[in-house]
Design goal:
single chain, 322 residues, mainly beta, globular, binds N-(1H-benzimidazol-1-yl)-2-phenylacetamide
Length: 322
C-alpha cells in the first residue's frame, strides 16, 4: 500500500527514517546505492552497539531465521558490515512488507559505530544484494506489487525534514514537471549517461561518463577533470590531504555546477556547494573527487535541490526542482 515516511537530516551527513522491524523501531539510512537491508543487532559486541538502537530477533514474534545464510558488504568509502539473515515484517511509513530479508549485523566497521544510523535500507537493484547462498530482494522490490505505481521518490530538502514516498509522486514536494531518463541497471545502480557538465555557464564534455543517483552518499562525487575544472574557478581553493578534499575560503564566491542526467542538465546552486566549515575560515566543498572510474555519484546534495523519482517500470529516473 502507498505511503510516505519522514526523513530526518542527521549531522548534515545523512537522512534517517524511523522504520519498524519485527515490532522494533530503528533509525535507518535509505541508500539507493546499495541493495542490502541490514540492522544493528544483539549479535554485535556491546562496544559496537553503544549509542545505537538495535534489533533482537528473539524479541520478534514474526522473525524466521534463514539457517546458513550470510551477508558481507563493502562500500566504496571503505566501510563495511557482515552477519546472518532472517525474515521479518518491515514497516516504512504506510508500506508494510512481510517476510522481508533482514540482515543482522555481527560486525560493523568503525564508521558505522560513530554514525547516527542503526542500519541501512538498500534501494538499488536486488541484483547487487550480498546475501549468500541465495540473493534476497530489497524492500522496494518486495513492496512493488502492493503499490499503485512501482516507484519511490526521495524528497531531501537542505537542513529540513524530508520524505520517501512509496507508490506515488507528491506534487506538493516539487515545482514544474518531472524529467525522466532511462536507467541502465546492469551494474545494479540507478545509473544513466551523464556526458556533460557546466561550471557556471561554461560547458565541458564528459564523454563515456555515467551518473548514479545515490542517497547513501552525502556529497556530489565526480571525476577529477570536472573537480579540477570547478575549483579552478574558486579563488583560494586547494586540495587538503588533512581535510580529505577540496577546501576554499568561506568568503569565496562559488560558481554553480550543472551536470547532465540523460539529456537534461541539473543545476546545483552555489549555496549547496559550500558544505560548511572545514576548519577556521576554510570551508569544505560539496563537490569532491570520486577517484578513478567514469561513474559520477550524485548524492544527498543533489537531492537537496531536486525531488528524485526511482521508477522500476522502464526502469527510469526522474527529477524535478524542489
Ligand atoms: O561509499 C560511498 C561514497 C563513495 C566513495 C567513493 C566512491 C564512490 C562512492 N557512498 N555510499 C553509498 N552507500 C553507502 C553505504 C554506506 C557507506 C557509504 C555509502
Amino acid at each position: 500500500q502507498d505511503g510516505s515516511a519522514t526523513a530526518v537530516p542527521s549531522d548534515g551527513v545523512e537522512y534517517l527514517v524511523s522504520t519498524v522491524v519485527g515490532g522494533q523501531t530503528l533509525d535507518l539510512d535509505f541508500d539507493t546505492g546499495s541493495a542490502d537491508l541490514w540492522v544493528f543487532s544483539s549479535q554485535l559486541a556491546a562496544s559496537s552497539r553503544s549509542g545505537h538502537a538495535y534489533y533482537t530477533s528473539s524479541k520478534s514474534s514474526t522473525y524466521k531465521a534463514l539457517s546458513g545464510y550470510t551477508w558481507d558488504i563493502s562500500y566504496a568509502d571503505g566501510s563495511g558490515a557482515s552477519g546472518n539473515v532472517g525474515l521479518d515484517t518491515v514497516q516504512i511509513g504506510g508500506t508494510t512488507v512481510t517476510n522481508q530479508a533482514v540482515e543482522l549485523a555481527k560486525t560493523v566497521s568503525s564508521t558505522f559505530v560513530s554514525d547516527a544510523s542503526d542500519g541501512l535500507v538498500g534501494l538499488a537493484f536486488s541484483s547487487i544484494n550480498t546475501v549468500s547462498p541465495q540473493q534476497q530482494s530489497t524492500f522496494f522490490d518486495n513492496a512493488q506489487s502492493s503499490l499503485d505505481s512501482p516507484l519511490f521518490a526521495a524528497y531531501l530538502p537542505f537542513n529540513a525534514d524530508g520524505a520517501y514516498d512509496f507508490g506515488y509522486t507528491d506534487s506538493s514536494k516539487y515545482t514544474g514537471s518531472i524529467t525522466y531518463t532511462s536507467v541502465d541497471s546492469s551494474n545494479g545502480f540507478w545509473e544513466y549517461p551523464s556526458t556533460s557538465y557546466k561550471v557556471g555557464s561554461t560547458v565541458h564534455s564528459l564523454s563515456g561518463y555515467t551518473g548514479i543517483s545515490d542517497t547513501g552518499t552525502t556529497l556530489i562525487l565526480m571525476g577529477d577533470s570536472a573537480v579540477t575544472a570547478y575549483y579552478n574557478q574558486v579563488s583560494g581553493a586547494s586540495y587538503s590531504s588533512s581535510q580529505g578534499g577540496y577546501i576554499f575560503p568561506c568568503s569565496a564566491t562559488l560558481p554553480t555546477l550543472s551536470f547532465k542526467i540523460g539529456s537534461t542538465y541539473a543545476t546545483i546552486p552555489a549555496s549547496l556547494l559550500n558544505f560548511g566549515t572545514a576548519s577556521g575560515s576554510s570551508c569544505f566543498g560539496s563537490l569532491q573527487s570520486v577517484g578513478s572510474g567514469s561513474q559520477n555519484i550524485y548524492g544527498d546534495v543533489f537531492f537537496n535541490a531536486y525531488y528524485g523519482v526511482f521508477d522500476a517500470s522502464g526502469p527510469s529516473f526522474g527529477f524535478a526542482t524542489i
